[in-house]
Design goal:
The chain has about 325 residues and is of the alpha/beta class. It has a domain of about 70 residues. It has an eight-stranded mixed sheet with strand order 6-7-8-3-9-10-12-11, with helices on both faces. Strand 1 and strand 2 form a beta hairpin. Helix 5 packs across helix 7 and helix 7 packs parallel to helix 8. The longest helix has 18 residues. The protein is globular. The relative contact order is 0.13. About 0% of the residues have low confidence. It binds iron/sulfur cluster (SF4). Iron/sulfur cluster binds next to loops.
C-alpha cells in the first residue's frame, strides 16, 4: 500500500523549569492511503504530542524537535515554514479535537467559520462557499443547515458541535484527518453516530485517518492498524486483527485485559495495570514497562529491546521475543529480583 505519511525516528521534547521532558522518543510509523491507523495508550504516553507534531501545533518553545522526520506526500513537514504549514493545515491535513469549543471560534457564526476556510484554501467566492458550507452541514447530518449556519457555537449541543467540527475538518477534502479523542466527551449513542459519520465520509472522500484514543472499543470498530504507545515510545504495532487476537507485548496484553468484554462471566475480574508510567524527565535506559511488567527479566532494566518481527507488519518491542530469552511467558530463570 502506498503511504501518505511516514514518521521516521521522531523525537520531541519539552524544556521546562525542572529539565527536559522526553515526550516522544524515537518513534517510526506509517499511514497508508485510505487507511485508518489508531494510536492508543495511557494519558501522557505521547499520542497527542505525536499528532500535534504532524500539524506543528506544539508551542515552540518549550517544545522542540530533537530528531527525526515527518514525511507527508514525499516532503518533510519539519522543514516547512509556518506560512507553508498554514497552507497544509485544514487543506491537506485536518484535525478534530476532543473539545470542539477549543477550536471553534465562540464569537463567530458557524457558517462564517466554514466559509472563511473555503475562501482561503479553495479560493471560492462568498456565495459559492456558503452553498458548499450548507451542503457539508447537510452531509454531517446537522438538521436545518440553512438556519443553523447563522448560529453561534454555544447554540449547538456537544454532539452537534462535534459534527460542525467534522464538517470544518472535511470541507477542503483533506488527504489526512487526525482525530484526537474525537468522541471522548460525547455520550455513547452520539459517539456511535459520529464514528459512523467519520467512516461514511472517509469512504466517500477516500482520505486516511489517524485516530488517537484510549477507547479500545472505538479502535476495534474503526481502525485497520493499531500503534500502541507507552512512555513516549512504540511498544507494539500491527493490524487491528493481530493486536486484538494475538497481542505480543505485555503492556498490550494488560491493556486489552483491562477492558470489559460482553462474553465475560461474573467471576472474571478486570485487570488493572498497577503502578504508573516512568518519569520522562529521566526516562529509563531499558524497557519503559519494566516496573509494571510481571514478566520482566534482569536484562529488561538496563537494555532497551529491539523490535521483534512477529509477522509481516506486526512488531513488538519486548525481550521475551529474543530467541535466547531464558523463559518465555513464565516467571522462571532470569526474572527480575
Ligand atoms: Fe516486560 Fe521485559 Fe518485555 Fe519490557 S522487555 S515488556 S520488562 S518482558
Amino acid at each position: 500500500m502506498e503511504n501518505i505519511l511516514e514518521i521516521n525516528n521522531l523525537q520531541v521534547s519539552f524544556r521546562t523549569f525542572f529539565g527536559e521532558v522526553e515526550a516522544v522518543r524515537d518513534i517510526s510509523l506509517k499511514v497508508g492511503k485510505k487507511e485508518t491507523v489508531a494510536i492508543v495508550g495511557e494519558s501522557g504516553c505521547g499520542k497527542s504530542v505525536t499528532a500535534s507534531s504532524i500539524m506543528q501545533l506544539l508551542p515552540m518553545p518549550p517544545a522542540f524537535f530533537k530528531g527525526g522526520e515527518i514525511i507527508f506526500e514525499g516532503e518533510n513537514l519539519l522543514g516547512k515554514t509556518e506560512k507553508e504549514m498554514q497552507d497544509i493545515r485544514g487543506n491537506k491535513i485536518s484535525m478534530i479535537f476532543q473539545d470542539p469549543m477549543t477550536s471553534l471560534n465562540p464569537t463567530m457564526k458557524i457558517g462564517k467559520q466554514i466559509v472563511e476556510s473555503l475562501m482561503k484554501h479553495e479560493k471560492m467566492t462568498g456565495k459559492e462557499a456558503k452553498e458548499k458550507a450548507i451542503e457539508m452541514l447537510n452531509l454531517v447530518s446537522v438538521p436545518q443547515p440553512k438556519k443553523r449556519i447563522e448560529q453561534y457555537p454555544f447554540e449547538f449541543s456537544g454532539g452537534m458541535r462535534q459534527r460542525v467540527m467534522i464538517a470544518l475538518a472535511m470541507i477542503c477534502n483533506p488527504k489526512l484527518l487526525i482525530a484526537d479523542e474525537p468522541t471522548t466527551a460525547l455520550d455513547v449513542t452520539v459517539q456511535a453516530q459520529i464514528l459512523e459519520l467519520m467512516k461514511r465520509i472517509q469512504d466517500s472522500l477516500g482520505m486516511s485517518i489517524i485516530l488517537i484514543t484510549h477507547d479500545l472499543g472505538v479502535v476495534a470498530d474503526m481502525s485497520d492498524r493499531v500503534v500502541v504507545m507507552y512512555a513516549g515510545q512504540i511498544a507494539e504495532q500491527g493490524t487491528t486483527n493481530d493486536i486484538f487476537k494475538t497481542p505480543n507485548h505485555p503492556y498490550t496484553i494488560k491493556l486489552l485485559s483491562s477492558v470489559p468484554r460482553l462474553d465475560m462471566n461474573r467471576e472474571e475480574l478486570l485487570h488493572a495495570i498497577h503502578g504508573t508510567p516512568p518519569d520522562l524527565y529521566i526516562p529509563p535506559k531499558g524497557c519503559s514497562f519494566y516496573d509494571r511488567c510481571s514478566e520482566a527479566m534482569v536484562v529488561c532494566k538496563e537494555h532497551l529491546p529491539e523490535f521483534a518481527k512477529i509477522n509481516d507488519g506486526h512488531l513488538s518491542r519486548c525481550w521475551l521475543n529474543h530467541p535466547m530469552a531464558v523463559s518465555k511467558r513464565s516467571t522462571e530463570g532470569g526474572k527480575k529480583e
